[in-house]
Amino acid sequence: MNSILFQLNEWAEVWSLLIPLAILIAYRPTHKLVRPVRIYLFVALFLNLAAIVLYAFHSYMPPFLDNNNIYYNLHSVARVLFFGWFIISIRPQKSMTPYKIGLVLYLGLILLNFVFLESPLYISSRLHAAEGLILIVLCSSFFLYTMQDESDTNWVKHSSFFVCVGIGLYEVTTLFIYLFFYQLSSAHKEFGEVTMTIRKMCFVLLCLALGSALYQMVKAGLAKSKTN
Predict the structure, then answer these.
(1) Which tens digit of pLDDT belongs to each residue from 137-146?
(2) pLDDT tens by residue, 8-30
(3) Dist. CA 18–CA 173, nearest whole Å
């Protein structure tokens, strides 16, 4: 039993992605917001699968494949780009111009960071902290927009609400984990392992939120087809 739970925990960042992917493949939602979510899920599956395979079978890997940290760094960038794209697509384009500029600056700073300051072969606390701050700001702007919106849209049942709740909870929880990643893992190894398990569980919740969002997109598409 303990072995099964251990494997579920080890592979949580892979099997959890299969939940929204199953909904995506089975129902093929056509909602306009589905594209960034779709691309993110396939990119995330590739990156997480590569990272965990390298970790689980590192003793069988050649030396140049003995490090999986770069995949976690790439996944951080992917979350910012695809979820940033998703949230920006919800709002009127003119009001989102500052956020678009912010994403461009983010990419420039990340490039400078890995060229001059840090190696991409180490998990970057700066990178993950920037991810957390950017996505928390974007999610907060979304929630503020929904509270001020005077249209008839039921935002609580809207697919974007599920995505932003999932992203917001994940980023708020993991921001401080990544900020103190190396301090926790070196000074208190067992506590560091607990925080990594918490991060994985938060990722599972994010995938459940994405699955719920995709299902809402399916329902929205069915409702639209019935009215037509």
Answers:
(1) 999 999 998 8
(2) 888 999 999 999 999 999 988 87
(3) 22
